[in-house]
Amino acid sequence: MNKFLIIGVFVVMVVAQWFVPGKMILNQEATLSQGTAYKFKTKPIDPSDPLRGKYIALRYDMNKALLVGNQNINWDDQVYVYLEIDAEGFAIATKASKIKLDTEQDYILATARNSNTDTVFFNLPFTRFYMEESKALPAEILVRQANRDSLLENCYGLVYVKENVAVLENVFVNNTPIKEYVATELKKNASE
Predict the structure, then answer these.
(1) Measured between alpha carbons, how far is 134 from 27 in angstroms, rounded to an integer?
(2) What is the pTM of this model?
(3) CA gyration radius for the chain?
(4) 140 touches 56 (CB < 8 A)
């Protein structure tokens, strides 16, 4: 009897270890296939942390929204940021709230940084874009140089949103996926 209990506990533990990551993967895949795509304008890619592992660090233009109601927002509180798409096709934050509002509008959960009576400042949750290690550092350098020289028409993260899940699918530079942009720029620089 004791042996069957140990085997049963072991089987439950193994199933749980596969279930949790499997559920996370399925949620992200469902968001990518069924969610709404939003383009978030980025600021120049952060040069102060060029490579920690295999990702590039992103900062976004969107960092504030009108606060709905009289709410006390503290540092690091989670806030619901409600989204729409502007005339240029980029995501804009229309409003934010500490509590979930009764609306059909897409939202993301962000981390509050500061607030006053009518505005909340926040950080978006998708600030890392993972790339092949050999391309992550050149990507940051090329985009930083292009931003400095005003050569970029646009740089944005394409994020899919479904219910409370937001997945950063890709980063685009001048409407080209960043991996292709880096490969093209490296070839161009090598031929000069």
Answers:
(1) 29
(2) 0.75
(3) 20
(4) yes
User: Tokens standing for 175?
Assistant: 């409407």
Which own/partner pairs from 69-76 qualify as long-range (CB within 8 Å, at least 24 positions apart)?
69/97, 70/117, 71/97, 71/98, 71/99, 72/98, 73/98, 73/112, 73/115, 73/120, 74/112, 75/112, 75/113, 75/114, 76/111, 76/112
- Mean pLDDT (whole number) for 131-155: 71
Which residue in the block uniquely carries the two structure tokens 């270890």? 17
Total residue count of the chain as it appears in this document: 192
CB 121 within 8 A of CB 112: yes
Distance CA 158, CA 38 (A): 6
Distance CA 160, CA 146 (A): 26
DSSP string covering 142-164: HHHHHHHTT--S-EEEEEEEETT
Query: What does the DSSP 8-state code read for residue 122?
Result: E
Kindly list the distances between the CA atom of residue 160 and the CA atoms of 26, 29, 40, 54, 163, in Å, as whole numbers in the listed order.
14, 10, 10, 22, 10
pLDDT tens by residue, 58-84:
888 899 999 998 888 889 999 999 999
In this predicted model, what pLDDT tens digit does every residue of 104-139 receive, in sequence order? Answer: 899 999 999 988 888 999 999 988 888 877 777 777
Cβ–Cβ contacts within 10 Å for residue 122, how many?
25
> 34-57, pLDDT tens digit by residue?
888 888 887 755 444 454 566 777
